Amino acid sequence: MTSTETVTAPDRVDPSRVAFNTGWSFRTKVTAFQELGGAGASDWTEVLLPHDALIGTERSADAPRGDTTAYFAGGSFEYRKRFTVPAEARGSRMLLEFDGVYRDAMVFVNGALAGQHAFGTSRFAVRIDPYVEFGAENEVRVECRTHLDSRWYAGAGIHRDVHLITKAPLHIAHDGVRVTTPDVDADRAIVEIAVTVENDSPVTTTVRLSAAVIEEDIAEVASGSTPVTLLPGERQVARLRLPVASPALWSVEDPSLYALRLQLAEIGGADAAGATVLDEERVSFGIRTLQLDPQQGLRINGREVKLRGACIHSDNGPLGAVSIARAEERRVQALKDAGFNAIRSAHNPASSALLAACDRLGMLVMDESFDMWTFGKSDFDTASDFAQWWERDLEALVAKDFNHPSVIMYSIGNEIPETGNRFGAMIGRRLAEKIRSLDDTRYLTNGINGFVSMLDTIIPMMQANRAAAADAGPAGVNGMMAGFGQMMSRIQASPQATERIEESFAVLDIAGMNYGDARYELDRELFPNRIIVGAETWPTDIDKNWALVTANSHVLGDFTWTGWDYLGETGIGVVKYDDDGARGQASFATGFPGLTAWCGDLDITGFRRPASYYREIVFGLRTEPYIAVQRPEHHGKDIAVATPWAWTDSIGSWSWAGFEGRPIHVEVYADADEVELLLDGETLGRATVGESRKYRADFETVYRPGELVAVASRDGVEIGRTSLAAASATLGLRVTADRTDLRADGTDLAYLAIELTDEPGTVHATRDRTVTVTVDGPAVLALGSGAPITEEGFTAPQHRTFDGRALAIIRPTGAGEITVTVTADGCAPASVALSVD
């Protein structure tokens, strides 16, 4: 059964914006005609939004194109919520704002279609007051579906926040507040405010718009007001220019935020207290400047900034493709702690919750619009909707992003095949000019891959090469796979690519290049006014790419694929060995039960992989060396497939019970000349950094337990050391919560790291086992690990650890006390108490 919620009427004519995430139920969609034919509808299940309808469904080896979607089959779903609207709210304008519904959403109110939206990751609002029964119970239903429409796991359902917005007839328009700071210096900043006011009443009305700028939610630092007169049915834009003295500028290092408080009041008093308030809004914003040129690159507040970027997909690992405020906050903080200062929302618009986290924590954003234009990449993707919806989708993108200081550029696409011909360039120009007409304060880019832009000529060539490789046997196929990155670089830098993508780059402010580092220095000569960003790059090339970024002012930065591992595109970063049956396999995928891409610096639980520490050293942000150990069970085996997305099969552990006396390979990452490796104080040798690759020293040794120490030196002087200790024979459970006091507002989560450790706390890498998590109290559980290949899901209370670790995510469903208990064979239980207010 679905509970009924009462929408509280304000005690004055005061438009309000309230979260509308509770009281929902969902089920697999069955039409009335299907039910007439004998199909049974599934039971309604109560859920808390945001919600991924797909993450709890069964994965199957025969799911169509399962290697891309993590073997989830898709489906159609419907949601419903019952709510009562007070009679005194009659005459209000009511909107339901959906931050994202995947996909082809249809919104029904009391059985009537109130609105629909095709795109699954852009915000939209539906007016519902014409269909509402005031003083009575109402029902809203949302239908959505997913089927062969994505190249990765996109989930399904109402996967982002929903808000109910209630407005008086005369009100500030939805998304009607724009704040800019065009004139900034050390002494003052001019804050320009544009507010769209709508008059849905039948009479001409004059109101007063008042604005106050509040710094850090403490002190009012500027204010002003203006009368606004509107005819019946009219929209007007009211503007104010407010000077802010000694502004605190927003930056990655110091993300200072201001709040803008707006009030619309009837004329009749000197201030809001002396008049009836018709509408109120509060908007967060930051004061900062952006500058761009080929000689000094990107400058924020007058200082050059190189973008240390991470591409991220929209799923949140064990939670599925949902955007919950705490999940986004944790992800942004973890990426920032790992050395990134920018993210790219691949390959769809970021959620409002993610942008809010980037604003608060100081993370720059490239917000991306589309993965396809008119040429489809999947059987049922949005290419068929593009011509009808692209303008509305871009309007939604800009409306959502405009007041977020973290957003510094928009991307109009990702690896769009049309960019290689003149008609595609025309489409790109339309998209670019549409965004500029809506927002001229940010820069435009497009993730162009010259290889993809020439697929019409490349595919026949690759088919011939593939046939020749197959005739040559497994060695030929593997050689083709290993050389994929080099082949792409050659094509991207070719004169043909230069000619075919010139116009598509010309419509942009910044030439976004996917895997296009071969063009960085070439284009400095060919196109001296072209500014470049590595919008998507091989993670294994960060040492070479970052050297190009730092040496060339016209190259703004690097966005690795990816910063955070994700569901789907299974196994593109997994190292495959001969004995896995991968020899001769002309595919990046692992096959079932592949779950994740396994190409992130951080895995889907947020745990940092060795590539993350290597990148941090390359960025110059880490002086301490890092020890990574290749898994000894694969020592001496031939690698069958290792794509350019694949790091070495290593982890930061010296706990290899069962491998005593067997050979093992140790990697040490350091910005140094030489590394000495010691075990219990005994030297295992010295190695020169950079022989196999820059910033890395390699050691062949034999495993035995103890303390492994790496000492890095430059010019004969020690500059840093680090150590790994082998775990002892004891085995226990360690459960650590990131927080124990939680909010009951539906936006909070507790993350519980589950580790199998010895008594001192060293994690066992080879003694994985199934853990069982029991939750007592008002909460639901998501449970998973970083394993890229597993048949396990995330909604069961049992999950096997991976490299000694698992992660439990506790989502409160109400106020109260929660007790989480974790058990595993051979270990004493561990419990954590949580309090929700």
TrEMBL record:
<dbReference type="InterPro" id="IPR017853">
    <property type="entry name" value="GH"/>
</dbReference>
<dbReference type="InterPro" id="IPR051913">
    <property type="entry name" value="GH2_Domain-Containing"/>
</dbReference>
<dbReference type="InterPro" id="IPR040605">
    <property type="entry name" value="Glyco_hydro2_dom5"/>
</dbReference>
<dbReference type="Pfam" id="PF18565">
    <property type="entry name" value="Glyco_hydro2_C5"/>
</dbReference>
<dbReference type="InterPro" id="IPR036156">
    <property type="entry name" value="Beta-gal/glucu_dom_sf"/>
</dbReference>
<protein>
    <recommendedName>
        <fullName>DUF4982 domain-containing protein</fullName>
    </recommendedName>
</protein>
<keyword id="KW-0378">Hydrolase</keyword>
<dbReference type="InterPro" id="IPR032311">
    <property type="entry name" value="DUF4982"/>
</dbReference>
<dbReference type="Pfam" id="PF00703">
    <property type="entry name" value="Glyco_hydro_2"/>
</dbReference>
<feature type="domain" description="Glycoside hydrolase family 2 immunoglobulin-like beta-sandwich">
    <location>
        <begin position="177"/>
        <end position="288"/>
    </location>
</feature>
<dbReference type="InterPro" id="IPR006102">
    <property type="entry name" value="Ig-like_GH2"/>
</dbReference>
<feature type="domain" description="Glycoside hydrolase family 2">
    <location>
        <begin position="733"/>
        <end position="832"/>
    </location>
</feature>
<feature type="domain" description="DUF4982">
    <location>
        <begin position="661"/>
        <end position="719"/>
    </location>
</feature>
<dbReference type="InterPro" id="IPR006103">
    <property type="entry name" value="Glyco_hydro_2_cat"/>
</dbReference>
<dbReference type="GO" id="GO:0005975">
    <property type="term" value="P:carbohydrate metabolic process"/>
</dbReference>
<comment type="similarity">
    <text>Belongs to the glycosyl hydrolase 2 family.</text>
</comment>
<dbReference type="InterPro" id="IPR008964">
    <property type="entry name" value="Invasin/intimin_cell_adhesion"/>
</dbReference>
<dbReference type="Pfam" id="PF16355">
    <property type="entry name" value="DUF4982"/>
</dbReference>
<dbReference type="GO" id="GO:0004553">
    <property type="term" value="F:hydrolase activity, hydrolyzing O-glycosyl compounds"/>
</dbReference>
<dbReference type="InterPro" id="IPR013783">
    <property type="entry name" value="Ig-like_fold"/>
</dbReference>
<dbReference type="InterPro" id="IPR006101">
    <property type="entry name" value="Glyco_hydro_2"/>
</dbReference>
<feature type="domain" description="Glycoside hydrolase family 2 catalytic">
    <location>
        <begin position="298"/>
        <end position="459"/>
    </location>
</feature>
<keyword id="KW-0326">Glycosidase</keyword>
<dbReference type="InterPro" id="IPR008979">
    <property type="entry name" value="Galactose-bd-like_sf"/>
</dbReference>
<dbReference type="Pfam" id="PF02836">
    <property type="entry name" value="Glyco_hydro_2_C"/>
</dbReference>
